[in-house]
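Internal tracking record. Fields below are filled automatically when a chain is submitted to the structure queue. Please do not edit lines marked as system-generated. If the sequence contains nonstandard residues, flag them in the REMARKS field before resubmitting.
Queue: standard
Priority: normal
Entity type: single polypeptide chain
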Amino acid sequence: MQEKIQQLKEQLLQELEQIKEAQAVIDLQEKYFSKKGLFTTLSKDLKDVADDIRPKVGALLHDVKTQLQADVAQKLSTYGDVLKTSFQDAWIDTSIATPDYKLGNIHPMSVMMQELEDAFSAMGFMTLDGPEIESDYYNFEALNMPSWHPARDSQDTFYVDSKGKCPWVMRTHTSGVQVRAMQKYGAPLRMVAHGRVYRNEATDITHDHTFHQIEGLLIDKNISVAHLIGTLQELISTVYKKDVKIRLRPGYFPFVEPGFELDMYSDELGWVEIGGAGMVHPHVITAGGLDPNEYQGFAFGMGVTRLLMLKYKISDIRLLSSADIRFLQQF
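SYSTEM-GENERATED OUTPUT FOLLOWS
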């Protein structure tokens, strides 16, 4: 043990003699005197020394370590000016005023989404999410649109190569979350789902291949069209912060029966279609694992983009994906 102490001492002094910069001294301190340093490791070996000489060896180790620490500190002091200069170069005056930075704006789509969530939450609806790459089953089959159904043509989408297995698609609507929610939560159920959807219909300044949609579903006993109208009237009036006229026109959607086109009245444009709605088709309720003879429900879906454009009088849908700060700062 005494030989190890002497060897370690000579090793340290030899390395210390060759040092030419302050950082090397600091590294040497870490190597020999830190919690995992060589002297610390050697101290742990004292337990293996014979009892009769352990005090003597311990005292020797302490004296050598103390002297060497002093030698290292002395060496480091010779670089004091260098360290002082480096600290001065790195010093930052935190009292100096920083230049004014312009913060970004919350995107109007995010604002509208939050307003819709708040409106639905006040009516007792929970907000759910679903996959944007959806299976053909949840996007079409479970919503009463089998492979031969002509309604699929109106929702031309982007198919994902599945190598011969069940096809996957970029979802054309958020309606697929309806069936998932019924399967998971059962009834009664109040839920909304929102997010990006994809359709191959970017043909003019009012349509895009990627847009945001929000979908609502209520399943319970003794539900009628009257409940649907009341819910939609409350939703639209809350979002636009004023009484807004709405109307339902007969319309066909495979997953509801009866189905309606939902219109709202705009002072500038007159009646404008904003979505679709209806009473949930029994086949959809069955796909959700519920008995259509016991439960009824209504569903509705609308493009958040259209609601946003009407509220803020945006004429070109492409502005919403332009990232033009001048456009975003208006909101």
